[in-house]
Design a protein that fits this description.
The complex is a heterodimer. Chain A is of the alpha/beta class. Chain A is built from 3 helices and 6 strands, in the order αββββαβαβ. The longest helix of chain A is centred in the N-terminal third of the chain and has 17 residues, at 18-34. Chain B is built from 3 helices and 8 strands. In chain B, α2 runs parallel beside α3 (133-144). The chains are: A alpha/beta, B alpha/beta. Chains A and B meet through α1, β5, α3 and β6 of A and α1, β1 and α3 of B.
């Protein structure tokens, strides 16, 4: 008959938590590398159309103007909500002046348009026309990258 | 002389519990602020304001494909018409993206095969105001390139512009 070891009262069972702490540090390092604190002006309510051909831009523009266009014609730019496209003209003037101070001409400014997929195309063209009136000529129509 | 007894080195146990608490706080912070965003790409559209230039005798004019897309009642595509510098007009309704791509492929192949013609090919879109932007992007995708069986992209036309239109 084997002798059973008696558990003394008050004896603590100690588990080695070192591997758990190692994994926790690994997770922290993972998130620290991936996290991006830069404020990218992406309006979450804009549902972009998707395309397999659209690739992320390889070169960063010297100066860019990023606008979000809603189906109703409202433009969201740097946190501001502009009711009508025509009211963007003074904003473009300010941006062009700011770009000139940085040594970038109006024709070198990259205008990025993030339009909702339900937006009438005419509104996108209207926005492009208003940009052209301010001597902006380089446009990028932003879409979601579709991966098959 | 009395020789001192060898003493055991002092062992100090540091309580690591607060460090583990902070580590978990950090982890929760990073998990809450982590955001998964979809990758986004661009279709370039260069639309300079037309400037008056002297016509050069040896200037090569680009081949221009005119793509006219008519919108239906709900903002969908009713009809797509395409011509090459006013010639070879074709109309598509069903499977218009595939047919448009095939048309553009033939034009590009013909232009590349004959060096005496214009080296550049452009597409000018004439799109109804009410057409949903989703279909415009599909049209741009159809003329820009093809995904081949080996997953590579064959570029077709890079120069895209829109015809100015007034609101209907």
């Amino acid at each position: 008959m084997g002798r059973k070891r008696k558990i003394k009262s008050g004896e603590l069972l100690e588990a080695d938590l070192t591997p758990m702490i190692d994994v926790t540090f690994q997770l922290i390092a993972f998130f620290m590398f991936l996290i991006n604190f830069s404020e990218v002006d992406r309006a979450e309510e804009i549902l972009l159309p998707s395309s397999q051909l659209a690739k992320p831009p390889t070169e960063i523009a010297k100066y860019q103007i990023l606008m979000n266009l809603e189906p109703g014609g409202k433009v969201k730019f740097e946190g501001q909500s502009i009711e009508q496209i025509q009211f963007m003209t003074p904003i473009f003037r300010q941006e062009i002046d700011a770009a000139k101070r940085e040594g970038v001409n109006a024709d070198e400014i990259s205008v990025i348009i993030r339009a909702h997929e339900d937006t009438p195309t005419g509104l996108v063209q209207e926005l492009i026309s208003v940009c052209q009136e301010s001597e902006l000529e380089s446009f990028s129509l932003r879409v979601k990258e579709k991966i098959n | 002389m009395k020789i001192g007894k060898e003493r055991k080195p002092l062992e100090s146990k540091v309580d690591m519990t607060p460090m583990i608490d902070i580590v978990f706080q950090l982890l929760v912070f990073f998990i809450m602020t982590f955001k998964i965003v979809t990758m986004e790409g661009d279709f370039k559209v260069k639309m300079p304001i037309a400037t008056t230039q002297d016509n050069k005798m040896d200037e090569v004019f680009p081949t221009v494909l005119h793509v006219k897309i008519a919108a239906g009642d709900t903002g969908g595509v009713a009809q797509v018409e395409v011509d090459t510098d006013g010639d070879n007009l074709q109309t598509f309704t069903n499977d218009w993206p595939g047919n448009l791509t095939a048309y553009v492929e033939n034009v590009v192949a013909a232009v590349e095969g004959d060096p005496s013609t214009a080296q550049d090919t452009e597409v000018e879109f004439d799109i109804d105001f009410s057409l949903r932007y989703l279909h415009t992007v599909k049209a741009i995708e159809s003329v820009s390139g093809i995904i081949q069986p080996d997953r590579s992209i064959k570029k077709l036309i890079e120069k895209i512009k829109f015809k100015s239109k007034s609101r209907d």
